[in-house]
Specification:
The structure holds 2 protein chains of 2 kinds. Chain A is α+β, with helices and mostly antiparallel strands. Chain A contains 11 helices and 14 strands. Chain A starts with a helix and ends with a helix. Chain B has one domain (about 1-15, about 25-180). Classes of the chains: A alpha+beta, B alpha+beta. Chains A and B meet through loops of A and strand 1, strand 8 and strand 9 of B.
Chain lengths: ~350, ~180
């Protein structure tokens, strides 16, 4: 037996013992995606100096930082971590690489479009006390990037609050906020609608309901905002609207497809697992609507099931409410990865 | 009484003088979100109040009576009781008395950013209720001219309470919960 063979065998045994040890300690299995996300995050950390690293990484148990996210612009709600506008180009590119690894291609595109929308707002707002723009977004981590230990990526600013908690191959995006203002804009000759797909799918679903189903689904009062938006951690409401068991198979598929606009922001493996979970609970999942049902009008909707809450709320703030939208995505059983953190 | 009247006038006038960024956020509205928890022998109201930037100073004036820039415990309690007087809770047609349990006020500085949330919790003893259908109605008349409301029942913790139906008026300033007790 050659020295090379002995060395290779020893390395294999060492790797196997590490893997066995990991299972023996009850560590969650890892995945390609979790490895890629941790690698991207460590690459980002490597671009920082010690001072920056100290400001971007928080203790995983830091509950104050965990809850420090909002729909509001950074000048109205102070965030911690590192501001995109204070980073060098290689550093901010590294932040985007972390998001690209953690999110699906369409999820990543949505996030970029939300930030670009804020840049459009910066250029058209005419100046004021509130500052908008793509530089006003913040990155922070709770815990160190890992393929085994739990950690969280926080990324947010105006109309964006991503809380991505990862534990091995498992992950959750809840709670997270997406929003858009303007919800439609032109960029390089193209019309951009960051939340366009969810808007269109929701109107398609409400249009598919017959009169009796609409009577159940449509709430007879105005919805002025999200009920369980930022700052409402731990609260839960009684479901209303039409129950999944009262929808046709086709309508249930449409409801799941609508929900996929939030679950599908995460990378494929996590999104797929979450969608399977929603499918299991589809007959216990409710769909509620408030407002006109004509496509293009301003209407609120809510999807609520045992492991999901999604709300979509146009904002009536002295402008066309269809151009300013807030949404929230929660899992009442697993916000911030609660069920994995308590094990 | 006069002080409250002039504060309300100020609130109304303030709503016409918004900064240029008023298009961006709820600045000129006072969001009052109520979560109603019903258990066999009690009702709890968790009310989250979020004044927008343009009305925050006027709301603070209602709270910070001595204008020292600090919301004292007495001032917090006084405001919570002012809100309580504007609430009317009825169970099966009879008026139910509310008691203040707790309140949490952000600093005036935080309230002025539009992100500060005042949290006030009330309690009402209602039982034990007989096993049958019941109806609870909450009316909120607090700062009506400026406010927008959200009204929701929380899922009951007790397995013997079942929410049958929720109804609201168009603005959600009045909400009704039909429920049964096993």
């Amino acid at each position: 037996m050659s020295n090379k063979t002995i060395l290779a065998s020893a390395l294999c045994l060492f790797a196997a013992s590490l893997a066995l040890n990991s299972f023996a300690q009850g560590n969650p299995p890892t995945s390609k995606a979790s490895g890629e996300i941790a690698t991207a995050a460590n690459k980002f950390l490597a671009t920082l100096d010690d001072g920056q690293r100290g400001r971007v990484v928080f203790d995983f148990k830091d509950e104050a930082q965990r809850k420090r996210w909002s729909n509001l612009p950074a000048t109205m709600f102070k965030r911690a971590g590192l501001r995109m506008g204070d980073l060098t180009k290689p550093q901010s590119d590294s932040v985007l690489a972390v998001l690209a690894a953690a999110l699906s291609p369409q999820g990543y595109e949505k996030i970029l479009q939300i930030m670009q929308g804020d840049e459009v707002l910066r250029k058209t707002d005419g100046g004021g006390r509130v500052i908008f723009g793509r530089e006003e977004y913040y990155i922070s981590f709770l815990g160190q990037p890992s393929t085994i230990e739990p950690w969280t990526i926080q990324f947010g600013g105006h109309h964006l609050g991503l809380n991505i908690t990862l534990v091995g191959k498992q992950g959750t995006l809840t709670p997270s906020h997406t929003g858009a203002q303007p919800a439609i804009y032109e960029l390089e000759g193209k019309t951009v609608r960051p939340l366009g797909r969810e808007t269109d799918k929701a109107f398609a679903l409400i249009s598919s309901l017959d009169e009796a189903q609409r009577k159940q689904a449509i709430l007879g009062f105005q919805m002025h905002d999200l009920v369980l938006g930022p700052g409402r951690d731990g609260q839960m409401i009684q479901p209303e609207g039409i129950k999944g068991s009262d929808l046709t198979q086709k309508q249930r598929e449409m409801l799941l497809d609508l929900a996929s606009e939030w679950t599908g922001i995460m990378h494929e493996a996590v999104a797929k697992a979450k969608m399977e979970e929603l499918k299991q609970h589809i007959t216990e999942t409710w769909f509620a609507w408030s407002g006109p049902t004509e496509k293009g009008s301003a209407a609120y909707f809510r999807i609520q099931g045992p492991t999901v809450i999604i709300e979509y709320a146009p904002q009536r703030l002295g402008e066309d409410p269809t151009k300013h939208i807030h949404t929230i995505y929660r899992d009442p059983t697993n916000d911030y990865g609660a069920k994995w953190r308590t094990r | 009484m006069n002080k409250i009247f002039w504060c309300l006038v100020g609130l109304l006038l303030g709503s016409f003088a918004l900064p240029s960024t008023s298009q961006a956020h709820r600045l000129d509205e006072y969001l009052q979100a109520t979560l109603v928890s019903i258990e066999p022998s009690e009702v709890r109201l968790q009310i989250n109040l979020t004044p927008g930037v343009a009305v925050a100073d006027q709301v603070i004036q209602l709270i910070d009576h001595d204008r020292d820039g600090v919301i004292s415990t007495n001032e917090a309690t006084a405001y919570a009781k002012l809100l309580m007087r504007d609430l009317s809770l009825r169970l099966d047609q009879r008026k139910v008395e509310l008691k203040l349990i707790s309140s949490n006020f952000p600093t005036p500085t935080e309230l002025r950013t539009g992100s500060g949330i005042i949290q006030i919790e009330f309690f009402a003893a209602i039982g034990p209720l007989p096993a049958r259908a019941h109806r609870l109605i909450l009316e909120n008349r607090h700062l009506r001219a400026l406010s927008v409301y959200l009204f929701n029942a929380a899922p009951p913790r007790s397995g013997s309470v079942h929410i049958a139906r929720q109804k609201r008026n168009d603005s959600q300033s009045t909400g009704e919960i039909e429920f049964t007790i096993d």
